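Hi,

I'm pasting everything inline rather than attaching a file, because the server keeps stripping attachments. The sequence lines come first, and each chain or strand is labelled.
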Amino acid sequence: MATADLAWASATELAAALERGDVSSVEIAQALSKRADEVDPKINAYLERTDERALDAARAADERRSAGEARSPYDGVPVAYKDIFVTRGVTTTCGSKILERFVPPYDATVVARCEEAGLPMLGKLNMDEFAMGSSTENSAFGPTRNPWDLDAVPGGSSGGSVALVAAGGAPWAWGTDTGGSIRQPAALCGLVGMKPTYGLVSRYGMIAFASSLDQAGPITRTVTDAAALLNLAAGGDDMDSTCLKDPVPDYLEGIDRGIDGMRIGVVKEFQGEGSQPGVRARVDEALTRLEKLGATLEEVSLPSFEHGISAYYLIAPAECSSNLARYDGVRYGHRAVADDIVAMTSRTREEGFGAEVKRRIMLGTYALSAGYYEAYYGKAQKVRTLIVRDLERAYENVDLIVSPTSPTTAFKIGERTDDPLAMYLSDVYTVPVNLAGNTAISVPCGLADDGLPVGLQIIAKSLDERTMFRAAYAFEQDLGFDERPAL
Amino acid sequence: MSVREDVYETTVGLEIHVELATKSKMFCACEVSFAGEPNTRTCPVCLGLPGTLPVPNEKAVEYTMKIGLALECRIAERSLFHRKNYFYPDMPKNYQISQYDLPLCEQGHVEISGDFGTTTVGITRVHLEEDTGKSVHLGGTGRIADSDYSLEDFNRAGTPLVEIVSEPDINSAEEARVFVSELRALLESLGVSDVRMEEGSMRVDANVSVRRRGEKEYGAKVEVKNMNSIRSVGRALEYEERRQREALDAGETLVQETRHFDEKTGTTSSLRTKEFAFDYRYFPEPDLVPLEPDESWVERIRGSLPELPTARRERFASEYGLGDADIAVLTASTKTADWFEAAAAAYGGDAKKVVNWIIADLYGLLNEAGLELYEARFTPVQLAQLITMIDEGKISGKQAKLVLAGMFESGDDPEKVASDKGLQQVSDEGAISAAVDEVIAENADAADKVRSGQMNTLGFLVGQVMKKTRGRANPGMVNELLREKLSS
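And the predicted assembly:
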């Protein structure tokens, strides 16, 4: 393979090339390092590059493969991680100044499992601070730019992950999704982004934002790669009590069976005004395409979804106000100089956290306060129950539900930073899925009239990832989206 | 006092924290230990490092249910962990994983008796949580306020901690003291904790209020902390009860506050008033799933409960025929009762003899040495051997006391102590008979008196034989031989 092709090949193509002996893992790592040298100064995807470590790991992978001892089909195919996953010996900041020099002593389960499968780590990727944001503008280390339009945001919070993969810097990357943080940026950068069912992938070592909503998931160029990367990490973990213990299936198996006879729900409440016309046009075409592939479309009503954003912005801040309390300067991370413990802690947090993080800590602290708990947190939990019920009812008649992933294509850097509510509405279609705990995927469905990518969201029942992958794969193959950003 | 008691009524509720003696911590695999250099029993989880998650210790859940069942509580079908949010540098996550409105055990009770009679104290709840680390304040007096800096030791952070909350059913310092003592014995019998108040593995806080008898509302609630022994509980609450009564007598208004007990002065002083109330912002811990112990698990634990102190006391009365005072001494702790029962079993004869030796003689030595019964250097079997030696006439009761003292010092077998001290009793009839003959010959007058029926002189002759044998003759045999030889 030529170097340029290595940058754009899918992980599965790279694995096949390695298996054939057409390329070495070292050559792949070198090609991706060179590509990062070219594009990263423009997009600011990386917070930390670990090229040396990746080369060492690639060399070891090559030796294993030539000795017939490959750890997995993907042994030697590199991966990069959103900087929310802790990595032993490699600085992990979570996009925050408060962890600017934090070097974890342990690996996240996702990282450990990918290492076990032989995936060399390319580095750590930019993100909204503590995953709070939809544009990656909330990173303490500068915004990431969208490879399709350097003046636009890549979406967020997994902006570094999508930007790097979209720019040919890595075949795939890990992101996390609390309210849409994998799917929305994947949509805005023309990639596949998948949020597994809550509890399918261990959260151990994934720095918590909102514990009951956070899930790790793959960001890839193809649906096959998403299923393959999920295969490497899914399944029970003794270090995470909320991680499901049941055995997990092979997500690649039967992925190409097609969708003939599938019943696909179209959300009544999401039709009409909400989306940008260019987005609506692509999504409408996608619906037609799904019908052409043999699916039947049915309208489903999810009335509780309109309260999703409100409930989310009580539950997620409430949990984050508690999760982020540990950043106090006592044991690790940034510590301000002050005369006593109260002043030290206050100043550490004042200096260490950005504006959006502070806003959410305050929101959450208020929502949990005595006398307000029932009115805010309690009520939000009730909305959550309603969303679960609405979905259960809908799935009595359909196998999958589809919607736009994001109401708009990528917006300009700075466009929404002064208007938190407009920013929050970027996640209107994705947030209810996190509240319900279901799985969903965003697949590219073409470019809008502004030349920017549009994503189609496919939402499945809990633990029905395989049906979802089948539909996403059939759609992907039929659409044949092969545009690349001119970077 | 009796007049006063007619005027006022004391109400006490207790909150007792007990560190569980599990091998590992509540939410990670670190060893639970009081020893160790600071911060050596830690891991990313109990240090609250970013990304870590708690995984509950099943043994700790089981121990908590054991406590609940022993206190006759209802075990919840569904129980939740909550986060209690507040900032403190000894708390790694700045929230404590605890339980809130759905504790594991609720609605139990304990019966206590004493000079006040017998009364039942309700148990509101028994819940499970994690302990904090320890702050060490350096410089100044060593208290936080005037220290130069503080160090944190997280070895204790994450130790499983059970909180037992009583109903305000306790009406005097003495009742409180007995309740704590009873609870400690019960926890000890369950084997779930070291229950050492001095070392903090059992910590008692009391809410004390005094009101005029007949009033509906309770008086201002005063929380008393820092009572580091059962005795301190009695002293602190007696002081506090008196202080509040005297304040009311003087027409003062009591305020809700937290007070610190000073062991040295025996008084309490105000730490803070409750106007500064915390809002802990409790919410369900999203990193954990609900605890839902199924019936078979609960029943298995119920079946594994050991004999509890109340049942044991009843058995000591019926099986050994012991009185209340002896029972109280022998059931003060499980280990004490176990020691006694081991001795009684090894002896096999009348257990009251064993009781008498323990209470009348051994306790004198133990108290002097500041030891508990089970800390004696010799074993229950050795005590049984000693009593058997008396029964077999090998030593006299008087000698046995000397042997016991020797055993207490050396831990040696009674046989060895007796022979080392030259205390073996002479039971050889020939030797005693010779001595008796000699004494009769040397004391003809006294012998005649006995012959003529003045039996009170027999004792004198026995004494003379004992003197001649340097106390080693079996007094029973001496007595018998003298009667025989002097019978007219």
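The CA atoms of residues 257 and 470 of chain A lie 7 Å apart.

If the labels don't parse on your end, tell me and I'll reformat.
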